[in-house]
Structure formats: structure tokens, C-alpha cells
Specification:
With 288 residues, the chain is α/β, with parallel strands linked by helices. The protein contains 11 helices and 13 strands. It has helices at residues 15-20, 45-53, 65-78, 95-105, 119-134, 139-151, 162-167, 173-181, 207-219, 239-252, 265-271, and strands spanning 3-8, 24-26, 29-32, 35-38, 59-61, 82-86, 109-112, 154-158, 184-189, 199-205, 229-235, 257-262, 276-282. A 6-stranded mixed beta sheet has the order 10-9-8-13-11-12, sandwiched between helices. Helix 2 (45-53) packs parallel to helix 11 (265-271), helix 3 (65-78) crosses helix 4 (95-105) and helix 9 (207-219) runs parallel beside helix 10. The longest helix is centred in the middle third of the chain and has 16 residues, at 119-134.
């Protein structure tokens, strides 16, 4: 049995970073104006942020199927028998299903699960999977352990610019306009509870209040602890509000690991700038 771990660019990693962990990588596509980029390969998060600041509204799509086919062709050449596939939620993209079908065409067993999320949750599920592969844990057992992580993990996203949500169909143009006038900042959730789709958890006025409210929701979970969990705190050029979140969370969980990162390009294309994301991730059984 020869096993590879495969993820996509929704998980806070560039292709170079994924390869440093010996994880294979599929870039989602981001179109800005008339140019289409391979996320995490020829498009960085910083460049995407710069384009949004210019007023451009990027669009995203799945990894090119030709790219996927070439990767699985190389797996056949290398004698790869099994792939552990970690992608962003099936409620957000059809990437997971299309890669799974590609594996079937190449007679490679693809072991996968719906993580019902993206961003930090996706990154750490991929890292956990790789560590367990290195421990020679059976792929089916790895998926079982990751499903437990998914069951007890969740997160929230607070956005500044409602126009991006409107363009994505989450809000009507009138609701976005009214929300902007009233300074309403929706706290969004993407988790198993929402079946991997973006749902509005609560509406709060002002960004700082929304960030504090999201932190309060998380700190209200009595089962979160430093031994079994880590927290991923992300923003798209919103350092002040991210710092508010970090200080609040450190008071509640003084010993827990808090990982800071940028919201990756393919997700920031939908959230816009000044967004803050907070996820609590349960560690997989057997992870050191």
C-alpha cells in the first residue's frame, strides 16, 4: 500500500507550503478581471487582497480537471494505491466529488470525508492525516479519527463588506444595502451544523462587537481545552479586530495554542477585506 495525502488551496497553504509537509495540492481557480490564476501557485493572498482593494470582485472555480487527471496519472506511475483526500466543504464546492470520481477512473482508492468547513479546519485535517499516514495508521482508521474531529470542531466568520456576500447570493442587494446603512455585521458559520454551507448565525452591529460575540460563543463551549484543541484565528487585513479576538480568547484559554494566519485567497474572494475568522479544531487521536 502506498498512500498520499491530497488537499486543495482552501486550506491556508500555498503549493510550496503543502509540499514542505509532503502533502499533494490542487489549486482552485480565481478569476480577476479577464485573467484566471491558480490559487496558491501563481496567486498569493497578498496579491488577491491588493486586487480587492482596487474594487475588483474576484470569482472562483474548481481546480482544472486536466490538473487533477495529470496528478492521478502520476500516482499510477508512482504505484500509489490510496489517497486521503481533504478538501473544502462539499457545500461550498464540488471539488471533493470530482476528485473522488477521478480516483475511480484511475483505479486508486480515495478515502475522503466532508469536513463541512474550510480554512484552518481543512489545513489541520490534512496535517493530521499526513502525521497518521507517517505512523502507518490504516486509511480507514484515519478517516474515522478525522470524522471525530469534524464532529467537535466549528468556527465563525465575521465580514465587513456585505457586497461580497450579496454577489455570492447569501444576501439580496436590498438586504446588503440596508445592512450597510445599519452597520450590521453578520456572524457566519460553516460547520457540520450548517451542512457545510454558509449560514448566518447571528447579526450584530459593528465589527468589534461581532468579533467579541463570536469569541463569547466559542468560550462558552466547556469541552474546549488546551490538550484536545487548537484555535485558528485568521483575518483579511483586519489586524486590530484579530488582535481583539486573540486577547479575548487567551484570557479564556491561557494555555491553548492559537494559530494566526491570513484568510486564504480563494475564501477572501468571497468574504472581502476586513473579515475575521475564528475556528476551534479538535486534534485527532494519536496526534502528538
Amino acid at each position: 500500500m502506498k498512500i498520499r495525502v491530497l488537499t486543495d488551496s482552501g486550506g491556508l497553504m500555498s503549493q510550496q507550503q503543502a509540499h514542505q509537509y509532503d502533502i499533494d495540492y490542487l489549486p482552485l481557480q480565481v478569476t480577476i478581471g479577464e485573467k484566471t490564476y491558480m490559487d496558491g501557485i501563481d496567486l498569493s493572498t497578498a496579491v488577491l487582497y491588493d486586487e480587492i482593494e482596487k474594487g475588483l470582485m474576484p470569482q472562483t472555480s474548481q481546480p482544472p480537471m486536466g490538473f487533477v487527471e495529470e496528478l492521478f496519472d502520476s500516482y499510477n506511475e508512482q504505484g500509489v494505491t490510496d489517497v486521503i483526500l481533504i478538501t473544502l466543504s462539499s457545500g461550498l464546492s464540488g471539488t471533493n466529488n470530482n476528485v473522488y470520481l477521478c480516483g475511480m477512473r484511475h483505479d486508486i482508492k480515495v478515502h475522503t470525508l466532508d469536513i463541512y468547513s474550510t480554512l484552518g479546519m481543512e489545513k489541520f485535517m490534512a496535517l493530521f492525516a499526513k502525521e497518521l499516514v507517517d505512523q502507518e495508521v490504516d486509511p480507514e482508521e484515519i478517516i474515522r479519527r478525522l470524522k471525530v474531529c469534524v464532529e467537535y470542531s466549528a468556527g465563525y466568520l465575521i465580514v465587513e463588506d456585505l457586497d461580497h456576500l450579496c454577489r455570492g447570493g447569501r444576501l439580496t442587494p436590498m438586504a446588503a444595502k440596508l445592512g450597510g446603512m445599519l452597520k450590521i455585521k453578520p456572524i457566519l458559520e460553516v460547520s457540520k451544523r450548517t451542512e457545510g454551507r454558509v449560514d448566518i448565525y447571528e447579526k450584530v452591529r459593528t465589527m468589534s462587537k461581532a468579533v467579541k460575540k463570536a469569541c463569547k460563543i466559542i468560550t462558552g463551549n466547556e469541552y474546549i481545552n488546551a490538550q484536545d484543541y487548537l484555535i485558528v484565528l485568521m483575518d483579511s487585513r483586519a489586524p486590530e479586530n484579530a488582535q481583539i479576538a486573540e486577547e479575548t480568547l487567551r484570557k479564556a484559554f491561557p494555555d491553548i495554542e492559537i494559530v494566526r494566519d491570513d484568510i486564504c485567497a480563494v475564501i477572501a474572494a468571497h468574504t472581502g477585506l476586513k473579515a475575521v475568522g475564528i475556528q476551534f479544531v479538535r486534534k485527532a487521536e494519536g496526534i502528538k
